[in-house]
Amino acid sequence: MNILEKIIIDKKKEVKNDKLKFPINELKKKISQKNNFFSRRLKEYEKKNTPAIIAEIKKASPSKGILIDNFNHLNIAQEYISNNAACLSVLTEKKYFLGSKVFVKDIKEKFNIPILNKDFFIDPYQVFEANKNGADCILIIINSTGGNLIKDLISTSNELGMDFILEVHNEKEMEVALNFSGGIIGINNRNLENFTVSLDNTIRIFREFESSLKNKLLISESGFKDKNDIAKIKNETGINNYLIGESLVKSNSIKECFEKFLK
Length: 263
Fold this sequence. Notes:
Blueprint: H1 3-21, H2 24-28, H3 37-47, E1 52-57, E2 60-61, E3 65-66, H4 73-82, E4 87-91, H5 101-110, E5 115-118, H6 124-133, E6 137-141, H7 147-159, E7 163-168, H8 171-177, E8 184-188, H9 200-209, E9 217-221, H10 227-237, E10 241-244, H11 246-249, H12 254-262
Parallel strand pairs: 1-4, 1-10, 4-5, 5-6, 6-7, 7-8, 8-9, 9-10
Antiparallel strand pairs: 2-3
């Protein structure tokens, strides 16, 4: 059993418990319409021809362990926003990434910025929960999500005015993602088999499906070290949206790290 399969098994148990503690009818009393705040922000950056960095708040990962000592999600969010992050991505999976749903709630109460709730969505219940906490966008990982579930997650997101990212890692997953209309497609540069990262993944997949991706909002995810990496993706694909996590979180200075990407 690989790490992703373990995460999904644990997530199913977590959602089952959450449904007992907070029934869906109670959740639905606390939801709000999000008006596609996340995708609108990305389009604004594109119009200005400014790279849109989706800056990730992540305490740990299964492959790297703890990424940052003295982790404070609000302080990190403040620094990201001060340095012109377009949106935030907030890891909320608690067992393997040491995240918390409270992170989204806390950040949203303090800052008016679009937030991707990054987790493993295996039930539409979680979309209502993410909405209640203040998230504007959810992640749907094609690799670990069946067709009917994808439809249900998309339907719930649309009902709430939330954006959704269909995340792909290879050509086979892109074929699946293109069966669904709307939404954002995220091309992850991390190989799930061996956790190696290569920006060429985005370029290769983009070229293979270029004609089908013309009117899609696209994000290249993982593996960015500096503005040369951003320029490489922009020049080869035209993609203007970049999800960046570890480079920022692990840097000694978030401000200097942003300057490496944007100046």
